[in-house]
Amino acid sequence: MKKILFALTITSLLFSCKTASLSNKISPQEIQVTINLNEIKDDKVMVSLEVPSILTNEINFNIPKMVPGTYSKDDYGKFIEDLKAYDQKGNLLIVKKADINTWTISNAKKLKKVTYLVNDSFDTENGKGFGKGDIFSPAGSNINSDKNIVLNTHCFVGYFDNFMTIPYTVYISHPSSLWGATSMIDLDTSPTNDLYKLPRYAVLVENPILYSKPDYTTFMVDDMEILIAVYSPNGKVTAQSLTPEMKTMMTAQKKFLGSINATKKYSVLIYLTDAKIKDATGFGALEHPTATTVVMPEMMGTEQLAKELKDIVSHEFFHILTPLTVHSEEIQYFDYKNPKMSKHLWMYEGVTEYFANLFQINQGLISEEEFYTRLSEKIEHAKVLNETMPFTTMSSNALIEPYKTQYLNVYEKGALIGMCIDIIIREKSNGERGILDLMQKLSKEFGVEKAFNDNELFDKITKLTYPEVGEFLKTYVDGPTPIPYANYFAKMGVEKITLKKPSAIFLKGQTPYINVDRKTKEIIISPYNELPEFYTSLNLKGNDILLAVNDVPYSFENIYDMINASTKWKEYDLITIKIKRDGIEQILKGNVKIPLEDVEGLKATDISKNKIKEAWLKG
Q1: What is Dmax (Cα atoms) for the chain?
Q2: Whether residue 458 has pLDDT greater than 70
Q3: For the chain, which terminus, N or C, has the lower number of CB atoms within 10 Å?
Q4: Residue 523's beta-bridge partner residues?
Q5: Which tens digit of pLDDT belongs to each residue from 414-430?
Q6: Hey, how many other C-beta atoms are within 10 angstroms of the C-beta on 517?
Q7: What tens digit of pLDDT does each residue of 376-428 get?
Q8: H or E, element range at 611
Q9: What does the pLDDT look like over 500-528, one tens digit per residue?
């Protein structure tokens, strides 16, 4: 999973037509699910489950509290309404709600069918997708009749105690105008009915579907089929427009991974939000073994979106390696009701994030300078968080405070942990091997169907690498000691320096120089911050309303276009800005002054280490 934080202040199904004819074919050990997307009322869909014979007097039906990859207790049961249980003759059975995610059904030996309504999560988000009670949007659901259904299967389909390992057959009927993008194989050729068969519940919930007007592309990367599907509510972005960047990136990733990845089909399902309505606000992505679900703002535009997706989707794709291949028993036997956390988020998220950056320098997608900049930024971001909290302790307790608020460090310090291990292995092997070699060995030792014991991983890694790696894990990952990053960079001939770096015109860190009037949609120069030379040289002042730049009108609706344009401005470029000050429109003319800031950076200075540095970056 990768959560993306954007400063946007700059901003009734009874049965399907198939049910009667197929009910006679139900396996004695199979859950049969029917979802009818043709009959949606108040953004609610009814789901029906036919069940095999139950041998107990009571049975619990459950909706997940949490799903793999989210690292938060989300209680998906809160979106379930009017759950009913029926016997063979259609008589109601007694159902009691045991907790927010569990319903206890009495006289269960007679149970034939369960029905319930599913509400969507996108309409209920209160914060920026990360607020209290919010579901992280890529793990949530959207039900917009005849337009779009974000069908994360864990939001719609539940499970019975002790019946999680039997097959699921899923029937979905839908309007012919909607097409379901997924990595699953549709066994029904009808344009209005889909049929999927899954071997067990855990496989079902790892297969999301994006229903919308068909907008997709497919391409091959070696023997892997890639599907890119897009829902853009106002048609501003298409799958075709994103595909060139995605193909370049995923081809490079496949080459970087080599034979370690055997996935035959991978889907990238992209939902773009509409700023004009109440919509999802938790931007980012959620990984699955053969798919990634992405939620991003449509107003960002194709160019900026493609740039963001390069980092977001590459992170999710590398999850194929860990935790989807290399993982602990806590993930292999995931408890959807009472989830238990592994100690090794440093690997699942941290090493994944490191690979998402390393492959880009390795495959020539970014420069060496850009790679060092990214590492420097991660060091600075990690300093804001608790550097002395043992990473394994934070990881195993990531669902509760005070550890939960430190979770974001998996993308910062977690990635730097991966970097340090990579450097140690490179140094000890004279540049011949790195952390990718370690992950390849772990994937052969364990794998999709074989989990490791959480408490034994460090010993296994030490045996596969060097004692120095084991000592690093013990001291800096399992212990409270902050990592002396400079020591590890020095091994590669890299040292810390101070750089003058151009900063963004409209944003400094998380502090915006412009705000938006939500009522008028006008862009306003912030009166609360000291303005840099770009503003003062043009005589821009706080509370000025920014109407146009270089004769292009701007408002909240196209603010990302303005931000994207500003990244292409050069020092001393002529610029014309139309503003409104105290109710009077004015035209301001002048030259662009790019703000500069002192930042800590990295630079290769020891040429005697060039060979091992090149092995680190390009090996």
Answers
A1: 82
A2: yes
A3: C
A4: 516, 546
A5: 999 999 999 999 999 99
A6: 12
A7: 999 999 999 999 999 999 999 999 999 999 999 999 999 999 999 999 999 99
A8: helix 610-618
A9: 888 899 988 778 999 999 899 999 999 98
Centroid of chain to Cα 378: 18
Which pLDDT score, from 0 to 100, does residue 3 have? Answer: 67
**31 Cβ partners below 8 Å, 6+ apart?**
49, 50, 51, 52, 159, 160, 163, 166, 167, 168, 169, 201
Which DSSP category does 453 fall into? P
Q: Which of 152, 145, 153, 141 is nearest to 174 (CA)?
A: 145
- H-helix or E-strand containing 294? strand 291-297
With a threshold of 0.85, does the pTM exceed it? yes
Alpha-helix residue ranges (DSSP H) falling in 451-553: 457-464, 467-472, 485-491, 533-536
Q: Strand 148-151 and strand 179-181: pairing?
A: unpaired
Q: For position 20, what pLDDT does the model report?
A: 30
Q: What is the Cα–Cα distance from 151 to 141, expressed in whole angstroms?
A: 6
Comparing CA positions, the residue from 266, 271, 219, 222 lying closest to residue 245 is 219
Which tokens is 121 given?
């999560």
Reply yes or no on whether the pLDDT at 345 is more than 70: yes
Q: What is the DSSP letter of 568?
A: T
pLDDT tens across 173-195, in order? 999 999 999 999 999 999 999 99
- The rounded mean pLDDT for the chain is 92
For residues 169 and 277, the model is more confident at: 169
Q: Which amino acid is at 373?
A: T
347, 405 in Cβ contact below 8 A?
Answer: no
- Within 73-147, strands assigned E span 80-87, 92-93, 95-99, 102-106, 111-119, 142-144
Residue type, 207: N
- Radius of gyration for the alpha carbons in the chain, expressed in angstroms and rounded: 26
What is the C-alpha to C-alpha distance for residues 129 and 142, in angstroms, rounded to an integer? Answer: 13
Q: Which residues contact 583 (CB under 8 A, 6 or more apart)?
A: none
Q: Token pair of 168, please?
A: 């699921």
- The phi, psi pair for 135, rounded to 5°, reads -90, 135
| Structure token pair of residue 453 | 């014991």
Q: Is the dihedral of CA 436, 369, 346, 139 positive or negative?
A: negative
Q: How far apart are CA 116 and CA 441, in angstroms?
A: 46
